[in-house]
TrEMBL record:
Organism: Neurospora tetraspora
Residues binding Mg(2+): E140, D167
Domain HpcH/HpaI aldolase/citrate lyase: 9-239
The protein's name in its UniProt record: Beta subunit of citrate lyase
Binding site for substrate: R73, E140
Signal sequence region: none
Pfam families reported for this sequence: HpcH_HpaI
PANTHER family recorded: HPCH_HPAI ALDOLASE_CITRATE LYASE DOMAIN-CONTAINING PROTEIN, LYASE BETA SUBUNIT, PUTATIVE (AFU_ORTHOLOGUE AFUA_4G13030)-RELATED
């Protein structure tokens, strides 16, 4: 499964109970749009929202070019709604991923994977050219954090982990604070597990503030904090949050330019048989070059003009 190209700097929740919001979502520029059947839909509206979402996806001739991925957040497998969510939507056209809430154990992912194999076998076939339906797991409890190893190994279609801070705080009877120190262990465990199991996405908690300058400042601070911890994306609950998340979870221009310089100079150093060298007085060795390659690759996925930067620094030499 080619999951390395997945980019989820922003994962925007859109209530499937609102046709107006679903239609509007198609005009947005977002790495991921996740239509929600869980928290934003009342029990009385679950069936209507599910059918409405199926029709919405079926009405699209193609996924909009400005959207990287269309997903659905189903209801928890412990509810009476999850099985109908899966059997109704697994074979829906234009659906790229399923976000699964309350993944407290590996058995949740095993169940979802088995249902998809029966309900939409073409999406989980052995054909290497097939486009598999990716799974993204919401980590919401102490049990889930303690069971991350088995969760990450539970399905070959798992493509990312999401930290659900509010449910985690409820489970531990703790209060969320602006500094987020109370979530340090859980968030670190999630990004470490995602990296250890080569999952492309580790998506950080929702920023509940989004209105006015203070809301934007809080979102920027949380994105920067999450990026420093190792997260590569952010859950969004309002379209206004998407641009900020995608900008801050993309490599900074200065970082990209430095990385291009490293790679240009490294090609010349390698040709000269030099395994370690310096650039701007800084030691450059294999780990630094590896990081530079990763930064440039991600920048290219984010739409940055790497070739122009390479042309600018084509004469860069190792010191």
């Amino acid at each position: 499964m080619a999951i390395s190209s997945v980019l989820r700097r922003a994962l925007l929740y859109v209530p499937a109970s609102s046709q107006k919001f679903m239609t509007k979502s198609l005009s947005l520029a977002s790495d991921n749009i996740t239509y929600d059947l869980e928290d934003s839909v009342t029990p009385a509206n679950k069936q209507t929202a599910r059918t409405q979402l199926r029709d919405h996806l079926s009405s699209l001739s193609n996924k909009p070019a400005s959207i990287g991925e269309l997903a659905v957040r189903i209801n928890a497998v412990s509810t009476p709604y999850a099985l109908d969510d899966l059997t109704t939507l697994a074979s829906a056209p234009n659906l790229d991923a399923i976000v699964i809430p309350k993944v407290n154990s590996a058995s949740v992912l095993s169940f979802v994977t088995d249902v998809i194999r029966h309900a939409a076998p073409q999406r989980h076939s052995s054909d290497p050219t097939a486009s598999p339906l990716k799974l993204i797991a919401l980590i919401e409890s102490a049990r889930a954090v303690m069971d991350l190893r088995s969760i990450c190994a539970a399905s070959p279609y798992l493509s990312g982990l999401i930290f659900a801070a509010e449910d985690f705080a409820l489970d531990l009877s703790i209060t969320r604070t602006p500094g987020l120190a109370e979530f340090l262990y859980a968030r670190s465990a999630i990004v470490t597990a995602a990296r250890a199991f080569d999952l492309p996405s580790s998506i950080d908690l929702v920023c509940t503030s989004y209105k006015g300058p203070e809301g934007v400042k809080r979102l920027e601070e949380e994105c920067q904090n999450g990026k420093e911890m190792g997260f590569n994306g952010k859950q969004c609950i309002h379209p206004s949050q998407v641009e900020v998340a995608q900008r801050l979870f993309a490599p900074a221009e200065a970082e990209v330019e430095w990385s291009v310089r490293v790679l240009v100079a490294d090609d010349k150093a390698s040709a000269a048989g030099r395994g370690a060298w310096t650039l701007d007085g800084k030691m450059i060795d294999a780990p630094v070059v590896g990081k530079a390659r990763a930064v440039v690759a991600k920048a290219a996925k984010c739409g940055m003009d790497i070739e122009s930067i390479k042309a600018k620094w084509k004469d860069q030499n190792p010191e």
